[in-house]
Specification:
The protein has helices at about 1-5, 10-20, and strands spanning about 40-45, 50-55, 60-65, 70, 80-85, 95-100, 105-110, 115-130, 135-150. By secondary structure, the protein is mainly β.
Length: about 160
């Protein structure tokens, strides 16, 4: 009776085993070529407090970390373009590159919101990543909302 019960399971087990990667290690120092890697080339992190105080500087940090075997192309200057979609007013916004090396990119955007309510910034970060054989221009869309309030109950 056991062989009859195992018979339907065997093809499934064989399919799972054949789908598993080989356990033999790759040669030391071997990396797949960038053209052979399918999937995301990098990870994006956006750091910003969800709340800001009217009249105080607020910071947004956008970080890019390439996935192996990709790296940041240092010959392409990163460009952050953000548009004020809700009338932030106040000091002119400033962006600066906080990190720019083969292993990562970080751009910091500072602004001083005025008034009260939800403020929205939208735009994109342009940069490039490269592998052993190829480079690819990239564009990351950004859309960020910040709730602006006052430090007291006074009218802003």
């Amino acid at each position: 009776m056991r062989p009859a019960l195992l018979a339907p399971v065997c093809p499934l087990v064989l399919a799972l085993v054949s789908a598993c990667p080989s356990s033999s290690p790759a040669p030391a120092g071997a990396r797949p070529s960038a053209a052979a890697v399918d999937g995301p080339r990098f990870d994006v992190a956006i750091e910003s407090q969800p709340r800001a105080t009217s009249g105080d500087e607020h910071t947004v940090r956008v970080s890019i970390e390439p996935r192996a075997p990709w790296h940041i192309n240092l010959d392409v200057t990163p460009r952050l373009r953000l548009e004020d979609r809700s009338g932030l007013a106040g000091e002119p916004p400033q962006s600066e590159t906080a990190r720019f090396d083969a292993d990562g990119l970080a751009v910091v955007h500072r602004f001083t919101p005025q008034g009260k309510g939800t403020r929205r910034l939208a735009g994109e970060l342009k940069f490039a990543v490269c592998g052993d054989d190829t480079c690819a221009p990239e564009s990351v869309p950004l859309d960020l909302s910040v709730e602006v309030g006052c430090d007291t109950d006074a009218v802003c």
